[in-house]
Amino acid sequence: MDAMSTTTDLTVPAHRAALFLDIDGTLLDIAPLPDAVAVPATLVETLTRLHHALDGAIAFVSGRMLEEIDRLFVPLRFDAAAEHGAVLRLAGVETSPAVPDERVMAIREAAEAFVAQRPGLLFEAKRHCLAIHYRLCPERQHEIRRFFAATLARFDGGFELLAGKMVWEVRPRGVSKGTAIATMLERPPFRGRHPIFAGDDRTDEDGFAVVARMGGTALRVGHGLRGSGEYVLASPGAMRAWLAELARAAEVNDARVAG
Questions:
Q1: Nearest to 165 by CA among 2, 21, 29
Q2: 217: which strand partners?
Q3: What does the radius of gyration of the chain's CA atoms come to, in whole angstroms?
Q4: N or C: which end of the chain has fewer CB within 10 A?
Q5: Residues with Cβ < 8 Å from 253, sequence gap 6 or more?
């Protein structure tokens, strides 16, 4: 289908869904800098309702650090896959599928030095990953890619480079949003539910592939290239509206069951 604007388009009852949600560009509008994003109060309310209606089967799946996710959506502390799957929180327990690696520090030092010589770039250090944002100077896109390609070549393929929206990110090889979603689907409250993953850019492709392979729903936000069988919503605003509608549908079902 080319678009999904109503919950009636879903082939699974809303209350049987397991939601996996990217944040930037999916739930939230992209901002010039990562710290400048705005979280509508209505979104926190909608997510709270969904968490209750889905018996907790909702998780954030993001490149952001876990601490940032919690700060953005306070007071919510949902299950989450942070740093592109390098950090997981399930049932309040935090784990890291990524093995701590001293090579991250060497890459970080090189990236910091690179950014320090180029005003307008923003370096973002995480626990297992790192990123260079170039939204304020898009002409440096290819220069950043060449820098990372040369730097990562020194580390025997232990890391990989991801292209996001106006950002290049480095993550440990072997972890991804897809592997994180697959892990969560093996555990309650996600196990046995219909997985829906919403994302917006290339860093979400692994997640789309996993839910499609498991018979779930890939929901792409924005007008970029899409894969076969994916649903599309035009913008984060449309995504927030769709989530509110999904919450209403799940609550209606709960009321019917209770009645």
A1: 29
A2: 196
A3: 18
A4: C
A5: 13, 14, 15
Joined tokens for residue 120: 């307008």
Catalytic site residues?
A: 22
- pLDDT mean across residues, the chain: 88
- Domains of the chain are 16-97+175-258 (3.40.50.1000), 103-172 (3.30.70.1020)
Question: Are the beta carbons of 226 and 80 closer than 8 angstroms?
Answer: no
119 preceded by a cis bond (ω within 30 of 0): no
- Tell me the CA end-to-end span of the chain in Å, nearest whole number: 34
**Whole-prediction pTM:** 0.88
Task: List all residues 6 or more positions away from 121 whose beta carbon is below 8 Å from its beta carbon.
Answer: 114, 115, 132, 133, 134, 136, 137, 140, 144
Report the C-alpha gap between 250 and 15 in whole angstroms: 5
Give the per-residue pLDDT at 25. 94
Cα torsion 196, 200, 204, 205: sign = positive
